[in-house]
Amino acid sequence: MQVSSLNEVKIYSLSAGRSLPEWLSDRKKRALQKKDVDIRRRIELIQDFEMPTVSTKIKVSRDGQYIMAAGTYKPRVRCYDTYQLSQKFERCLDSEVVTFEILSDDYSKIVFLQCGRFVEFHSQHGHYYKTRIPKFGRDFSYHYPSCDLYFVGARESNVCDINPVHFLFAMGTAEGKVECWDPRTRNRVGVLDCALSSVTADAEIDGLPSVSALKFDGALNMAVGTTTGQVLLYDLRSSNPLIVKDHHYGLPIKSIQFQHQLDLIISADSRIIKMWNKDTGKIFTSMEPEHDINDVCLYPNSGMLMTANEAPKMNIYYIPVLGPAPKWCSFLDNLTEELEESPESTVYDDYKFVTRKDLENLGLAHLIGSSLLRAYMHGFFMDIRLYHKAKMMANPFAYEEYRREKIRQKIEETRAQRVQLKKLPKVNKELALKLIEEEEEQQVTRKRKQKNLPSLLKDDRFKVMFENPDFQVDEQSEEFRLLNPLVSKISEKRKRKLKILEELEAQEQEEEEEPEGKASDAESSESSDDEKGWVEEVRKQRKLLRQEEKVKRQERFKEDQQTLLKPQFFEIKEGEEFRSFKDSAKKQKLMKKTLGDRLKLEEKLGTLNVSDTTVGSKQATFKLKKSEQQKKQQEAEKQHRQERKTLRRSANHLKSKRGRGRLFR
Q1: Quick check: 17 pLDDT over 90?
Q2: Strand partners, 31
């Protein structure tokens, strides 16, 4: 149990300490409690009072026996029985719970507003009915006289509440106004401008304050919380707030509760819970949990406070000043009284604890039993001034030794900041420096059992990368800059480091002895800019590339203007004729005409003949146009055939003459 105190108000955190996993067996839990002192001393007021991931809402039934909590993941609701100090049941839901309300005195009637525009009704046995509302709901209130549920949805209102005395319905809007409606006449009866009233002279506000929390107290008082961290207390008879309390964190107010015994208002944002007097606004006490707060629930007529957090465990606080412990955990009063009666012993700064051996070394063993030494455990307490005087007399050179030790430590610290000389290759120096830095980081974070990984610089397979200039990385190329947008900033640091290394190497060559380097502030002076994302850097690189491309185009355009255009001549091959550009224009005109017009033109030229057949259909014959080259080729083939024909005739004539001569012989 953790105890804190502010303004002399003690706050006991009953959820402090380590929690054990649910899947552990009872035997293992008992074994851990025996071994670990923190687990053994922790107080588990309600067993398994937690959610798997996050708890969003927490409420107490009107009879005080049941505590209901909603959370994720998966979306679920859990009911805890305070009389049994354990969980009674758990129900999983289809979607996350925005808020819920317990309509009955116990857990038998519950209404859940879910994020998917669904409203789900549960009875004692489980799910009873489910319906859907037109808009996404943010809050709702139950009107007991008419048994009506009033929902407020997105783009209109954020929160709502019904006065428990005269049942006036109030809702807070996104414009920072509170509208009050009478359910009997269904008309609006008044409007409060809370956004204007929340702005004070010393307040710094970035945007328009919206209403994020609303709570009635009695018939006339109403507290309003804004998204900018202000709480306004109103009397319904006046449009001006009675008091304005600022949390000074600029976070939306999540919950407002009234504590009537001490006239306190308990307001909470996601970071802090503040308790302050509703008449004067003076802070009574406050507490800051470890995790962000989602909801706060004050157990009725007691000093117990419960919170739903952005963590699995739900916190329980007990503040004895606010009231007694609930009857189901009345032992807390006896426990806190015992802690107050027997406070822990403390060791003050003006006393020094020494053992018997320390007294013998200082020569003060004869003081044992006197009033200068107070026996405690295995040693004694003595005045710190007497201790320093005795130590100076026993060892007069202790200060000189202390001074020399401090100087040596300072020198070692400065040596650690010096730039260590590293032998870098001639090619890809930045890549080699990067690999060296990564190896140093791995040596620091690597566990003992892990094996040492081989270095790329010492691997023969990658030896050529740091020797051959053809493998030099071009960091100005478009591919490198787009694939590695964040490397540019890191490379600037490495370039500065390389420059420092080159200067130190030059000094080492000039001097025979190794000079002492100066501390490098290159890395310490510049904080790593991790907040800029990858997308932003890629956009920046693309913008730079477009600018460079634009400059190159302008330079090429200037060069083209400066160069004189010279005419070019083309030679026509043999056997081809030059045709004017008019032929292509005629072809384009002809292609634009319809098929009927082209057929008529072909008939006029004689290349197409259309006639009727005996069966009543049309017959078209056409002649292909031949180019001049095709015509010449056909004429040459015709002449060749004619020459061969004449040759064959002459050969046949000679053969016939020879045959006749032989007959006559």
Answers
A1: no
A2: none
Closest to 225 (Cα-Cα) out of 208, 210, 242, 240: 210
- The amino acid sitting at 7 is N
DSSP three-state, residue 55: strand
Return the SS3 of 45: coil
Q: Are 53 and 293 in contact (CB under 8 A)?
A: no
Q: Which of 307, 301, 302 is nearest to 287 (CA)?
A: 307
Contact assessment for residue 136 and residue 153, using Cβ atoms and an 8 Å cutoff: yes
Given strand 351-355, what is the order of strands in its sheet? Answer: 351-355, 379-383, 374-376
Q: Contact, 283 vs 275, CB < 8 A?
A: yes
The single residue listed with the structure tokens 């943010």 is: 138
- Measured CA to CA, the distance from residue 231 to residue 212 in angstroms comes to 10
Q: What percent of the chain lies above the pLDDT cut of 90?
A: 31
pTM of the model: 0.52
Which amino acid appears at position 475 of this protein? E
Extract the tokens encoding 99.
């808020």
Between 242 and 570, name the one with better pLDDT: 242
CA distances from 2 to 16, 42, 43, 304, 410 (A): 6, 9, 10, 15, 39
Phi then psi dihedrals of residue 221, to 5 deg: -100, 145
Residue 664 burial (CB count, 10 A): 5
Do residues 621 and 607 make contact, with C-beta atoms less than 8 angstroms apart? no
* Dist CA 236 CA 57 (whole Å): 28
Instruction: For strands 221-226 and 211-217, give the pairing.
Output: antiparallel
Q: What is the pLDDT of residues 277-302, one digit of tens each?
A: 999 989 999 998 888 999 999 999 99
Element (H or E) spanning 137, and its range?
Answer: strand 137-143
pLDDT digits (tens, 9 = 90+) for 138-195: 999 999 999 999 999 877 889 999 999 999 999 999 999 999 999 988 899 999 998 8
Q: Helix (H, G, I), strand (E, B), or coil: what is residue 278?
A: coil
Tell me the C-alpha to C-alpha distance, in Å, between residue 303 and each of 11, 46, 215, 220, 295: 10, 16, 20, 25, 17
At how many degrees (to 10) do helices 398-417 and 384-394 cross? 90
